[in-house]
DNA sequence: TATTTATATTGAACTACTAAAAACAACTGC
DNA sequence: GCAGTTGTTTTTAGTAGTTCAATATAAATA
């Protein structure tokens, strides 16, 4: 069996295999499928990844996805994000920078937010309580334009 | 039965009862115990609160604590905090200001951090993606002095 | 290609939390 | 103070997300 599928031509070929081996991990179809999907669909949870890669890998299990995202997070190939309110953890392949997130409290839509002023002022809190800061995770919460319009419309209809 | 117990003299009496009634909630022993404990032990999770108030209220249930923290959060009497890594939600009575948190990734210790520059610059991300920001929750993560010393010592012992 | 060993699968368990019905107790008004 | 009303708690069960342990599988290595 060769590696080329109909999918491969659609996007720049990320050499997930090489990336995995570079970290001492075996390049399995499951891991590459998870990486590929997360690259195209950042901020997905384990269940979403599982459902998405299932058609191509019929024998894959949800437990495997959990194992994989845990291993990949541990090796720094993906980042685990936990958002207030959503019970499940999200994952993304964008790990080069320390970026943050903004979420609509109405529809749950998540977007990336670059570090606040560029040079991570967020890494300099007022009082560190003697701690050496390693990172800051910021989650902005608000309402997106679509939901805002929707809410305004509903308010107009039933006042 | 009067309200005075051995505990009451130790700290300023917070009138939790009045606070609860002011929000249209009944002043039950369980709710007051939860408020009292969270006031003295901020950033506790439901299980911790449950174990702590159990001696004084032997019939209290963990489910009741979950219900209570949910109700109190809903009425704005306490704040729910979710931290990366810790599966369970934490609660605190400090709700007057929009403060943030710093956590040691080694021992889990949590401290309060005042809003970064005072006037919530955290509420002004670079790109809002069209969203109207309502709040920002920042969790700084680092290593506390104790753990730092411990880690350095271990490194010295086994090099 | 055979061997080794990491990884995936399977099935079960665990934790945080929620739901529904019944028992209880805080407020209301007498 | 006492009974009635109704909000809360208790009890019992259930769910979602995740982890664990044993076995099966397949990627790397020779
Ligand atoms: Mn992101
Ligand atoms: Mn706090
Ligand atoms: Zn929205
Ligand atoms: Zn520490």
TrEMBL record, chains A, B:
It comes from the Bacteria. CDD domains: Fur_like (cd07153). One of its GO terms (biological process) is regulation of secondary metabolite biosynthetic process. SUPFAM superfamilies: Winged helix' DNA-binding domain. Its main location: cytoplasm. GO terms for molecular function: DNA-binding transcription factor activity; transcription cis-regulatory region binding; zinc ion binding. Its cofactor is Zn(2+). This is Ferric uptake regulation protein. It comes from Paenirhodobacter populi. The lineage of its organism: Bacteria, Pseudomonadati, Pseudomonadota, Alphaproteobacteria, Rhodobacterales.
